[in-house]
């Protein structure tokens, strides 16, 4: 029996993820990342794809660029797009990345001086079934440092909403406090971060590309006025 078209597609996507996964850099690569106050960081971006309720084909692809550290909007781009790839859990990037990448490429072409030095992605990076979520995919293809920030816990690799997880959340006393999300293999895949004093609900931060986890967590906290970092909240 030959594989169905859906199985063929899944195999193709899995091998593509595995190939691109080899290119992810999980370390700080930029000078500003090594500075205690992120000296030299001037532009932070955020990308998101938002859907109209009840319609999972038409969406709005959004990119904003804010100044750092004062988080004022420097650039905004939103385009209605029609998604062609099917939604399959764990392969969200194949639906969304092309449109987010196009937004970054438009900016690079039209106003290159406003290109962000780091991009926050509304989704996961290494905290993913195969350690290659949307933030990794966009990071590798764009070549930009990327940070995945998810609002909900993806229950993967043995990480779940256990009583222990809930008690760790309760122990986060103030904005900036975090704890590691450790997969079944013992690898730290991301961190749960209390991003603001005002919000006791954490966000889940993971490396996308060209940044270390500790720096990604510190930067996420620095970009939060509320629970969600401003570059994503402004989308």
From TrEMBL:
Transmembrane as a keyword of this entry, yes or no, is no
Q: What is its main location?
A: cytoplasm
Could you tell me where this protein is found in the cell? Answer: Cytoplasm, Stress granule; Nucleus, Nucleolus
The record's section on InterPro entries has: Endonuclease-V
Assembly, per entry: Monomer. Interacts with PABPC1; the interaction is RNA-dependent and stimulates ENDOV activity.
- RNA-binding as a keyword of this entry, yes or no, is yes
Q: Which organism is it from?
A: Astatotilapia calliptera (Eastern happy)
Q: Which family does it belong to?
A: Belongs to the endonuclease V family.
Cofactor(s) needed for function? Mg(2+)
Q: Which GO terms describe its cellular component?
A: cytoplasmic stress granule; nucleolus
Q: Which residues form a coiled coil?
A: none
Q: What is this protein called?
A: Endonuclease V
Summarizing the function annotation, the protein's role is:
Endoribonuclease that specifically cleaves inosine-containing RNAs: cleaves RNA at the second phosphodiester bond 3' to inosine. Active against both single-stranded and double-stranded RNAs. Has strong preference for single-stranded RNAs (ssRNAs) toward double-stranded RNAs (dsRNAs). Cleaves mRNAs and tRNAs containing inosine. Also able to cleave structure-specific dsRNA substrates containing the specific sites 5'-IIUI-3' and 5'-UIUU-3'.
């Amino acid at each position: 029996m030959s594989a169905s078209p859906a199985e063929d597609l899944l195999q193709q996507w899995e091998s593509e993820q595995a190939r691109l996964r080899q290119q992810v850099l999980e370390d700080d690569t930029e000078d500003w990342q090594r500075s205690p106050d992120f000296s030299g960081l001037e532009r932070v971006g955020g990308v998101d794809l938002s859907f109209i309720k009840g319609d999972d084909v038409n969406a709005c692809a959004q990119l904003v660029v804010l100044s750092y550290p004062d988080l004022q909007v420097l650039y905004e781009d939103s385009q209605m797009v029609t998604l062609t790839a099917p939604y399959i859990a764990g392969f969200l990037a194949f639906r969304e990345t092309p449109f987010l990448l196009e937004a970054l490429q438009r900016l690079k072409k039209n106003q290159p001086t406003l290109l962000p030095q780091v991009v926050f992605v509304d989704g996961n990076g290494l905290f993913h079934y195969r350690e290659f979520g949307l933030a990794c995919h966009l990071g590798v293809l764009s070549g930009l440092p990327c940070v995945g920030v998810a609002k909900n816990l993806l229950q993967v690799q043995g990480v779940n909403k256990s009583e222990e997880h809930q008690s760790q959340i309760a122990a986060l006393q103030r904005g900036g406090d975090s704890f590691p999300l450790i997969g079944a293999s013992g690898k730290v895949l991301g961190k749960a971060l209390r991003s603001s004093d005002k919000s006791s609900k954490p966000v889940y931060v993971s490396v996308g590309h060209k940044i270390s986890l500790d720096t990604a967590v510190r930067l996420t906290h620095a970009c939060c006025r509320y629970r969600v970092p401003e570059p994503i909240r402004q989308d």
